[in-house]
Design goal:
About 45% of the residues lie in helices and about 10% in strands. With about 525 residues, the chain is α/β, with parallel strands linked by helices. Among the domains are: about 190-330 and about 440-519, no CATH class; about 335-440, no CATH class.
Length: about 525
């Protein structure tokens, strides 16, 4: 009997070991399934999900897109006229705009429709008809394709016949032709400004521009267009670029970010390797509205350190550790990146009751909601509001983060690690009312470059990449200051050839987009 009990106890012990081993494997497999499900959902979100960070992005009206014809038809609704046409955005109806307001900046041509000469006779008696009045019929917008013409410059010489008659010593004076952008070239300020605007504002590659020129009857190769862009950027726009950079470094806040650029012909690198386009920008609250682009062959932090050398203000960035190389600045973190970490960790159908990531996401939303209330206040008031309203919220947030014990390797673990590692930078904005809580400013500033990159794909040479950075700086800074990019490029390309070989700071400041004369 004792042997039977002993054998049974051995069997139970063995079964318990087997159960524990199997339970461990089950737990491990469940973690793997959870991790793989998380990766799958994030891949779906990246491919098919929203790119906007709005917390509410699907309105009830959007859910009725497929049956809206049947449900919204109303034959009694009056057809809108141009005078009463309005645009609705974000639920707020804009003020009604009239034809005169919509076309305020357009030249106007009146077209009077008259009878032909052979019809200017009465059908009854045959006598000539007399105009008794005009009646307005309608408005129409007319598009006139671009006009390309060849300018031939001639200089004139003048002689004083009186001086010649008196002493035989003629007085002669001559006119001077406008200075050329490039020697022995057809390039003019208008053509170069047009090529730059189409590529760097409209995202139209030089290969397509070459075809457009050909349709106009002009054979201009993309190599010629590239020469125009690079030479004019390096010779005429680079001094303006340096002055913008100098002004940027006097700002109290700079926002920085970078993105990938492919340059085919780089020394010591393959054509498929990745380089970087960096963006440094400031807004009106922190100084001037400036967007300064810089090409670099890689993502090393030494490039940010070099660009921001001797800068001592606030630097707002994402969590990239390379920015730690920049000395003497108050490094500020990005709460938009923090919120994305929580959002990526949220499983499908996540709520605050069943998901810790959803709780973190809600904390971030509360922060953004409070910040929105004081967005238009002066920096001093916003700083005080942050210390009263925001600081207690963030203390509670980081105490909650420390209580989390996520599974290693999960998206939740990434979010917790990011929060703890970035804590000093994420809290830095509390000390500066002029600093925004996210780096969305820099991300929005670099977006035109990333959109254009989808069309022209890569830069051929380093010189081309550097020139692209210069031109992007010009057009994006012009846009940030409310100046039409083509008009700004045309103006500076007309003016720069008449500046000194090394333009003075006063001359360059007069050509900045924020200068009151340019405005």
């Amino acid at each position: 009997m004792s042997k039977t009990k002993e054998k049974s106890s051995v069997n139970i012990a063995e079964l318990q070991v087997i159960i524990q081993t199997q339970q461990g494997k089950i737990d491990e497999l469940e973690q793997q399934i959870e991790r793989m499900t998380e990766m799958f959902l994030n891949a779906q979100r990246a491919r098919f999900g929203q790119s906007s960070e709005k917390t509410t992005y699907v309105s009830p009206e959007q859910m009725r897109l497929f049956d809206e014809v049947e449900t919204t038809q109303d034959m009694k609704v009056a057809e809108p006229t141009v005078e009463t046409f309005t645009i609705e955005e974000n639920g707020e109806r804009k003020k009604k705009r009239t034809i005169d307001e919509l076309t305020a900046n357009l030249p106007v041509e009146e077209v009077v429709i008259k009878l032909a000469d052979h019809k200017m006779f009465c059908d009854e008696c045959g006598k000539p008809l007399k105009l008794i009045g005009e009646k307005f019929a309608r408005h129409a917008l007319q598009m006139i394709p671009c006009l390309v013409k060849l300018l031939k410059y001639y200089t004139c010489s003048y002689e004083c016949p009186n001086c010649d008659a008196k002493n035989g010593d003629s007085y002669i004076t001559s006119t001077i032709a406008p200075k050329a952008l490039m020697k022995h070239s057809l390039a003019s300020p208008s053509t170069v400004a047009d090529v730059m605007t189409k590529k760097y504002v409209d995202g139209l590659p030089l290969a397509r521009q070459e075809k457009i020129w050909k349709r106009e009857g002009i054979e201009l190769s993309r190599a010629t267009l590239a020469n125009w862009v690079i030479q004019c950027a390096q010779r005429w726009l680079k001094p303006l670029y340096r002055h913008m950079k100098h002004t940027l470094l006097t700002s109290s806040v700079i926002y920085a970010d970078e993105t990938v650029i492919q340059v085919l012909k780089e020394d010591g690198k393959s054509a498929t390797s990745e380089s970087r386009m960096w963006i440094y920008g400031s807004e009106l609250r922190g100084g001037r509205s400036i967007r300064c682009f810089e090409y670099q062959p890689d993502r090393k932090g030494k490039h940010a350190e070099c660009f921001l050398k001797r800068y001592s203000g606030c630097l707002v960035t994402d969590g990239y550790a390379g920015y730690n190389k920049v000395q003497g600045v108050a490094r500020c973190g990005c709460w938009a990146h923090m919120r994305r970490k929580w959002r990526d960790a949220m499983p499908k159908g996540a709520t605050m009751a069943n998901s810790k990531a959803a709780v973190g996401y809600n904390y971030c939303n509360k922060l953004f909601a409070v910040e929105k209330k004081y967005a238009d206040e002066i920096s001093l008031i916003r700083k005080s509001a942050r210390q009263v309203m925001v600081e207690p919220l963030l203390e509670e947030y980081f105490l909650w983060v420390k209580t989390l014990n996520p599974t290693a390797g999960s998206k939740l673990a990434e979010a917790v690690t990011y929060a703890l590692n970035q804590k000093p930078y994420l809290l830095q904005f509390l000390n500066y009312g002029e600093v925004e809580i996210s780096n969305n400013f820099a991300e929005n500033a670099i977006r035109p470059f990333t959109i254009g990159r989808k069309n022209w794909l890569f830069c051929d040479t380093v010189k081309g990449a550097e020139s692209s950075a210069i031109v992007y700086t010009m057009v994006e800074t012009a846009k940030a200051n409310g100046i039409e990019p083509y008009a700004y490029l045309l103006h500076v390309l007309n003016k720069m050839p008449y500046c000194d070989t090394s333009p003075s700071s006063k001359q360059l400041e007069a050509l900045m987009p924020w200068n009151f004369k340019i405005q």
